[in-house]
Design goal:
The chain is α/β, with parallel strands linked by helices. It folds into two domains: 89 residues, Urease, subunit C, domain 1; 290 residues, TIM Barrel. The chain contains eleven helices and 16 strands. A seven-stranded mixed β-sheet has the order 3-2-1-4-14-15-16, with no helix packed on it. A hairpin with a 2-residue loop joins β2 and β3. The longest helix is centred in the first third of the chain and has 17 residues.
Length: 397
């Protein structure tokens, strides 16, 4: 035992995969879960117990940008920040995630390895997985972050550099994006040969690859190259989103996990210039939702990730809203959607056996909420208490 034993009791419990009938008493010692018992289980002598309506594992956001301050042109202004200012933005981003019950984040694009370096030393906030600067074509989407590369050899070297620096995943921009002026969301930024070189080198070094892909051609090329994940997966064409049967079958029969980057602040529209780029590409958040529903009906594996930090409607800590959209707009059951933000998300991030579950030996990352998320998914938006690596989070701060 590493410290004073504490207990968290709830009448409703979701363990990251399934509901626990009758609720649960979760026992924590230090930073580790040491017991998951029925709610009526008598706690050990001297164990302080708190009682809340519902308990589940801390949430996981599989797609964030901690360097983004959620302001207009958040990504474009990053290069102008001093190192101290950038760290302040990262600090604030992490606090916002914790306040929403997000205890693990996967950063899929930082500025010149700022988050990746932070991830190796930060032991107080959410657990951080990081990609470093995303690989992109010269002048391509998010090129200001420092990940430009062209040609198979340069791309292989870029992958090797990320492995040497301790990256958890390789992120590559296979299409343009709405947040970078001058790029084309429908166009591909790399050839199939270049993408295959990235996947081969990353897999040789033990790293997964996830691909930002808006255009249908970019999605198809990413699948052909053998990536492990696809971000957005918008499948855009000049005539709108399209999910060919053959592509749906390949996605659903593969190990590829799609993060559709749902979740937005209610009542907050994207900045006008971003809205204009989305309109030019024939899409919007509202139009993306039925496409995600089609992916789900086709049996494609989906995970909860928000693209947090890129703009006013995408502030940090929006996983509860992402989960609500997966249920309300995309047809998932509450159990499926909760798993997409906990147990299934942990598997996507390579954290199975460490996080995302209420299980003995795993990190003590807990979310206690006001209500029953199995019948009212919006109760995730009402956190009562958050535990991150065994520490009680001060929600008032």
């Amino acid at each position: 035992m590493g410290g004073a034993l504490r207990g968290y009791r709830a009448d409703v419990a979701f363990d990251g995969q399934r509901p626990l009938p009758g609720g649960a008493l979760v026992l924590v010692d230090g930073a580790t879960i040491v017991g998951v018992e029925p709610a009526a289980f008598p706690p050990p002598d001297g164990c302080q117990v708190v009682h809340h309506p519902a308990i589940l594992p801390g949430l996981i956001d599989t797609h964030v940008h901690l360097c983004g301050d959620s302001g207009p042109a958040a990504l474009e202004r990053i290069p102008g920040l001093s190192p101290e200012e950038l760290q302040t933005v990262i600090d604030t981003s992490l606090r916002q995630h914790l306040a929403a019950g997000v205890t693990t984040v996967r950063d899929l694009g930082d500025h010149r390895f700022a988050v990746l370096e932070r991830a190796r030393t930060d032991v107080t906030g959410p657990a951080i997985l990081a990609a470093g600067p995303p690989l992109t074509s010269p002048g391509g989407h998010c090129s200001s972050m420092g990940g430009e590369a062209a040609g198979t050899e340069a791309l292989r070297r870029a992958v090797a550099e990320r492995a040497e620096r301790g990256a958890d995943v390789v992120k590559i921009m296979t299409s343009g994006g709405a947040m970078t002026s001058g790029t084309d969301m429908l166009a591909t930024q790399f050839t199939l040969g270049e993408l295959r070189a990235v996947v081969e080198e990353a897999h040789r070094l033990g790293l997964p690859v996830t691909a930002h892909a808006h255009g249908l051609a970019a999605v198809e090329t990413s699948v052909e190259a053998g990536v492990d994940g696809i971000e957005h997966c918008s499948c855009l064409t000049s005539g709108g989103a399209r999910l060919p049967d053959q592509l749906a079958a390949r996605l659903s029969s593969s190990d590829i996990v799609v993060c559709p980057t749902l979740g937005r602040l209610p009542g907050m529209d994207p900045p006008p210039e971003v809205a204009a780029r989305l309109e030019a590409a024939g899409t919007s958040y509202e139009q993306h939702l039925p496409h995600v529903a089609a992916l789900r009906r086709a049996g494609v594996a989906l995970t909860a990730g928000t693209d947090a930090g890129i703009g006013p409607s995408k502030r940090h800590g929006l996983v509860p809203f992402s989960v609500a959209d997966l249920v309300g707009e995309c047809g998932m059951s509450p159990v499926e959607a909760l798993s997409a933000a906990t147990g299934a998300a942990a598997r996507t991030c390579g954290l199975d056996g460490r996080a995302g579950r209420l299980a003995v030996g795993l990190d003590a990352d807990l979310l206690l909420v006001d209500g029953d998320p199995l019948t009212d998914i919006t109760s995730l938006q009402r956190p009562r208490a958050v535990v991150s690596r065994g520490r009680d989070v001060d929600l008032g701060a």
